[in-house]
């Protein structure tokens, strides 16, 4: 309640209501907190809750709920996320080369709908810069240096033709695989032209086969797990194709879902703002994301990380009931703050005990 009644109104009203500037300022504050052990201990005490241990893709996660990709692309708040109750953080999406992303403004709040629309366009400092930040923080694959596993989401550089996507992704992969507990292949953002075509059978097969092969070359005994993040807008036939490719290619798991191009469920008074170009996240996506997770979980044994529309603890439990093995939040965290993470941890831990 402190976040929702006191801090959130201040944050949302800052910088003239510019959502992206607020976001960047919040990350900068978390970066400063991350340099103080005293501050991190205090933060952890405030957000403390029981957490179930979950193992997915051979990785042990200290809890069920992680930070979704997109919120901390460049790993700025890396050292603080565990103290806020997260079981893991998926950094990125980063690209082989640094890029500014789309023109601003490109992030829009729909508070009555508990939603966001974004067309960020993979704005990031590049894969090498993230690798260097992880190196400075002492993060290596599997060492738990920041109190939790660290995943990295990689995507396509805007200036790279889709036909050369595999080479572009592999550049990022080689730079980041030594540091990442898993690598997520983002082929589902709606904000990079042509990217979603990489979910088509042939393109996806070429990409993930090379990614898995590269993982084995880099670490033959214990290759870094490769996961694929998909869109919520795929038909069942398209989902079947994605599953077939991932099963044939020894992909370690799926992340479902990314943002949606649909605008169902938006509050009528926010319909005009919702027409901004970009992907919609938050409460309007809750049911569709859950349906996709349920379909994928019932159709194969691949573990699914459920993300999309988790804005309450009830949403989290329903996503787990649909078949998700792990969860990630972004928009729900923006609207509800650390209390959402604590409540999900508490309720999932209580469920495991029963």
Write the layout of secondary structure elements.
Blueprint: H1 2-13, H2 19-34, H3 37-46, E1 54-56, E2 59-61, E3 65-67, E4 89-94, E5 107-110, E6 115-118, H4 127-136, E7 150-154, H5 165-176, E8 182-186, H6 201-218, E9 226-230, H7 236-248, E10 253-256, H8 271-274, E11 279-282, H9 286-299, E12 304-307, H10 313-322, E13 326-329, H11 331-336, H12 338-353
Parallel strand pairs: 3-13, 4-7, 7-8, 8-9, 9-10, 10-12, 12-13
Antiparallel strand pairs: 1-2, 5-6, 6-11
Helix pairs in contact: 4-5, 5-6, 6-7, 7-9, 9-10, 10-12
What does this structure look like?
The chain is of the alpha/beta class and 354 residues long. Helix content is 40%, strand content 15%. The protein has helices at residues 2-13, 19-34, 37-46, 127-136, 165-176, 201-218, 236-248, 271-274, 286-299, 313-322, 331-336, 338-353, and strands at residues 54-56, 59-61, 65-67, 89-94, 107-110, 115-118, 150-154, 182-186, 226-230, 253-256, 279-282, 304-307, 326-329. The strands form three sheets. It has an eight-stranded parallel beta sheet. A hairpin with a 2-residue loop joins strand 1 and strand 2 (59-61). The protein is globular, with a radius of gyration of 19 Å.
